[in-house]
Recover the amino acids of this structure.
């Protein structure tokens, strides 16, 4: 038997994941409070986020782990993570290095509902 | 044939809903930029939100339409709605009337990940 002192150990069991084992994670710019994106984490990507201190999702489209900015360099440096009252959503505060959106915008939410 | 001038008409077809016909909607305090909650909308609750100017979700647990604060009075008055680059998430800016969380907290995200 081993006793783990991994500080990320606590994070997992208390959360409610959906049928696909995922939990939505809102990413907010820690300095400006701007919402940058919404992604999905599973248990392991949450652990990877805590360990690497870089926001890491499960990509639903590519079905793979995705450390945001790993290729582009536009990483999201972790500040802290909050959970909601129902423990089925996360709020991740981060320092963005470069634009978060693949379109080059700072935030993925750059359009109003009615915009083309 | 009728010609509709309903300003909410545009909102629906362009969005990507999930297998349950839902899209996640992040609610942000328009004045402070604080994240208040994450809820889910379907096509009709999005329309209701735009028509009533009060944020209205589809409650997954109760399987019913849910205009936030309808009972408590703690409504979320709509300011505007943004969509993300993938059109599968919404960012709703609102004026909260009273606390948003059922626990009495301003925001549902009042705990750090490791808190009990």
């Amino acid at each position: 038997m081993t006793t783990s002192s991994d500080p990320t150990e606590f994070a997992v069991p208390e959360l409610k994941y959906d049928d696909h084992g995922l939990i939505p994670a809102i990413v907010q710019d820690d300095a400006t409070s701007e919402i940058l994106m919404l992604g999905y984490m599973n248990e392991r990507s949450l652990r990877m986020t805590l360990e690497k201190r870089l926001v890491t999702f499960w990509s639903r489209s590519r079905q793979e782990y995705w450390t945001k900015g790993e290729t582009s360099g536009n990483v999201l440096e972790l500040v802290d993570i909050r959970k909601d009252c129902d423990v089925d959503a996360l709020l991740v505060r981060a320092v963005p290095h470069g634009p978060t959106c693949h379109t080059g915008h700072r935030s993925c939410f750059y359009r109003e509902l009615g915009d083309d």
Observations:
- Strands of chain A lie at 23-29, 35-41, 56-59, 64-67, 76-83, 90-96, 111-112.
- The first strand of chain A starts at residue 23 and ends at 29.
- Chain A touches chain B through 33 residues (CB under 8 Å).
- Confidence is low (pLDDT under 50) at residues 1-5 of chain A.
